[in-house]
Amino acid sequence: MANGWSIIIGLIVVVIASVLAWIFSPKGENQTVFRSTLILSFVCCYLMWAITFLAQWHPLIAPKRSDIRPDRVPE
């Protein structure tokens, strides 16, 4: 079962992968592009996963609007 530690463990994995990408990226004229691409890819994948995980963990079941009169709310 997933719990709150999943977000932190995922973040630690992404940080470690980003550090390894920074250290072991091939040297050359495109080193900055290569590093940036890997690190941004790791971060984007983590953010998409975290947002999806949190949206499933704490769903918005029935949001309530406060700007509608109670007699106009459809049932």
UniProtKB/TrEMBL annotation:
Signal peptide: none
Transmembrane segments: 6-25, 37-57
Coiled coil regions in record: none
GO MF entries: proton-transporting ATPase activity, rotational mechanism
Keywords linked to the UniProt accession: Hydrogen ion transport, Ion transport, Membrane, Transmembrane, Transmembrane helix, Transport
Gene Ontology CC annotations of this record: endomembrane system; vacuolar proton-transporting V-type ATPase, V0 domain
GO BP field: vacuolar acidification
Topology in membrane: Multi-pass membrane protein
Domain of life: Eukaryota
Pfam families per UniProt: ATP_synt_H
Protein localization: Endomembrane system
Similarity remark: Belongs to the V-ATPase e1/e2 subunit family.
Name of protein: V-type proton ATPase subunit E
